[in-house]
Amino acid sequence: MSVVAPLLDTARPVYTPEGVALRLPAAGPVPRAIAWLIDCAARWTILIAVSIVVRAFGAAGMGLYLIAYFIVFWGYPILLEVLWDGQTPGKRALELRVISEDGAPVGWLASIVRNLLRTVDFLPIGYGVGLVASYSDPWGRRLGDMVARTMVVHAPRERRDLRPPVEGAQAPQQPLQAQEQAAVIAFSERAPQLTQERREELADIAAPAVGAGGALGVLRLQAVANWLLGRA
Fold first, then answer.
1. pLDDT in tens, 147-192
2. How far apart are CA 100 and CA 106, in angstroms?
3. 142 and 84 in one domain?
4. Which of 127, 179, 191, 221 has the fewest beta carbons closer than 10 A?
């Protein structure tokens, strides 16, 4: 494997239980490193502010500072990843997100594991182990991600508004089996998170069922989903 490959953003193919193929755009080490630096700056800013405040408590202030240090150092990434849709301020700035390797939102246990293992990824210094792991993994994952079964992906904010305009409903060109109906409905639900290019790629696969591919196929797939769901 070329050592250059992990520096390039690649896509991980994932198949949902409904049979819909997704491509998760894995983030390489460079944007992840920049996001990490932003988060480091944010954490140190918080700790500096805390240190100024706890000085007023004299000797007891050191104990309060150590408690705050522990919470900021360990709690900052875990709480934000789970409660803020897989993002920290650094990841949000770089439009990155932590997710499970099957595309589901990251959970508490996975976030705890991936962040605790940063201590291993950091060895011997400067995330040396983590970088070697990223260079060796086709989706740029460090050891913490491999063990926690998570990955960091690109998540452009503008994709949330991508929804193909569709009016009315349309019956499929041919009878659909139960799993095919589920796949069409799943496509309709996931379409806002996909690029137009990816929608058209999926529509080409389903062309026999809707009688068209490409951009027209996308609209017809949504119309068939409306028909299956009983929408006018």
1. 999 999 988 765 444 444 555 777 887 787 877 777 878 777 777 7
2. 5
3. yes
4. 179
What whole-number distance in Å separates Cα of residue 85 and Cα of residue 110?
14
Q: Specify whether 109 is located in the same domain as 222.
A: no
- In whole angstroms, what is the distance from residue 141 CA to residue 138 CA? 8
* Residues of the chain under the 50 pLDDT cut: 1-9, 18, 159-164
Q: How many independent structural domains does the chain possess?
A: 2
Put simply, whether the predicted model's pTM sits higher than 0.70 gets the answer no
Secondary structure class of 106 (helix, strand, coil): coil
pLDDT tens digits, one per residue of 63-72: 889 999 999 9
Q: What residues contact 112, with CB distance under 8 A and at least 6 apart? A: 78
In whole angstroms, what is the distance from residue 181 CA to residue 126 CA?
50
Q: Which domain holds residue 108?
A: 5-155
On whether residue 223 sits in a domain, the answer given is: yes
In a domain, 232, yes or no: no
